[in-house]
Amino acid sequence: MTPDPSTPFRDPELALRLAAAIKASATRPMKIMEVCGTHTVSIARNGLRDLMPENVTLLSGPGCPVCVTANRDIDMAIELGRQPGITLTTFGDMMKVPGSRSSLSREKADGRDIRVVYSPLDAVALADDNPGMQVVFLGVGFETTAPTVAAAIKTASRMGLQNFSVLSVHKTVPLALEAIVNDPQVAIDAFILPGHVSTIIGPEPYRFLAERYGVPGAVTGFEPVDVLQGILALVRQVAAGEASIDIAYRRGVSSDGNPTARGLMAEVFQPSDSEWRGIGVIPGTGLGIRPEFAKWDAAVRFPVTPEEPREIPGCQCGEVLRGITLPYECRLFAKGCTPEHPIGPCMVSSEGSCAAYYRYTDYGRA
Questions:
Q1: H-state helical runs in the chain
Q2: Nearest to 312 by CA among 336, 281, 343, 340
Q3: What pLDDT sits at residue 350?
Q4: Is this structure's pTM higher than 0.85?
Q5: I need a labelling partner for 296 at 20 to 30 A (CA). Which of 5, 52, 68, 328 fits?
């Protein structure tokens, strides 16, 4: 059932054959969590949950970086943006994410100098062009985006820029999955592992899931056949009582990942504790800026103390990210909370589980 590399990965006939093989191989109930938000969107858009047998449940996990960013970190960015002389820059998908009492888009509407950039290097260029302006880039994302932010910090260092800095709230994925595995409310049997992150880190950092916990994983791509191919590998492992970490996306992921990108991250960042929405603080899953680059660390240069964070009443995004609540089970879903008027980050982000369910399933049209 493994397709030839030249096989179209949107081949409906092959997808149906893979779905039939999944049904035949699923000999017991099992929960499979897709970690990546892009997988969540692909699964919803292509109706892959409808192809699963009744005893195979696909759950969304903490793989949307916008969604897992804690209110405390968003509040910190908002407070930085309120400081005189600071221009806060970030990616567009962070603008509408609600903090405890405001959002970046609301702050911008109130006159704060908050700008959307397409790359952290755009923020470096903005600082270079405006020496009288303190430019802070809000760095959000996993191992996929962190190397580009590390490159921006190194570029600013080489240029001697004194008016550029980064507020790093980056997170790393593997140890977050350990928190999910140890969560008795979830009881995950297998993981669809993220393709983009794995192009950087390779499969090795996930190996502990199989060896220590007996939970298999498969790195997959994002087309329907990619995802189904990975699910089939996982279903067969679970049914056989086996556990390994497979690469079902060899055209994109090698066994060693991208050593150059990892080296760049290691040079600029160091592990730190990080708070994940819905999960809490997970030691060693953050990427703090190393002391030798403190001149470009906004948390060091501009220490601010926001008010104590608070959660949005009624929003169950945290439970959705842990896989214990499905999006449509949230009492706000498709009522007060829609992509046009989002209340929680799982509906704000285009990769959020709630947004995917709303746009691509009947639950959003009920």
A1: 12-25, 37-45, 65-68, 71-81, 104-109, 120-129, 146-159, 174-181, 195-201, 207-213, 224-240, 259-268, 298-301, 317-322, 345-348, 353-360
A2: 343
A3: 87
A4: yes
A5: 68
Question: For residue 255, what are its two tokens?
Answer: 């066994």
DSSP bridge pairs for 333: 337
Query: Mean pLDDT over all residues of the chain?
Result: 94
Q: What is the DSSP letter of 85?
A: T
Cα end-to-end span (Å), the chain: 37
Strand pairing class (134-139; 114-116): unpaired
Distance CA 92, CA 117 (A): 7
Distance between CA atoms of residues 146 and 134, nearest Å? 21
Which residue matches tokens 């999006």?
A: 327
Q: Give, as one character, the DSSP assignment of residue 69.
A: B
Q: Under DSSP, is residue 364 helix (H, G, I), strand (E, B) or coil?
A: helix
Cα 284 to Cα 53, 169, 211, 273, 350: the distances in Å are 37, 12, 20, 5, 27
Q: Within a 10 A sphere around the Cβ of 297, how many other Cβ atoms? A: 18
The residue extents of the domains of the chain are 12-63+173-248, 66-172+258-301, 317-359
What digits encode the pLDDT tens for the residues 91-139? 998 999 999 999 999 999 999 999 999 999 999 999 999 999 999 999 9
Contacts of 230 (CB under 8 A, 6+ apart): 192, 218, 219, 220, 246, 248, 249
66-172+258-301, CATH topology level = Rossmann fold (3.40.50)
CB atoms within 10 A of CB 185: 9
**What CATH number is given for 12-63+173-248 in this structure?**
3.40.50.11750
329-338 long-range contacts (CB < 8 A, ≥24 apart) are 330/354, 333/357, 333/358, 333/363, 334/358, 334/363, 334/364, 334/366, 338/364
Tell me how far CA of residue 13 lies from CA of 6, 211, 223, 224, 229, in angstroms.
15, 35, 14, 11, 13
- The crossing angle, in degrees rounded to 10, of helices 146-159 and 120-129 is 20
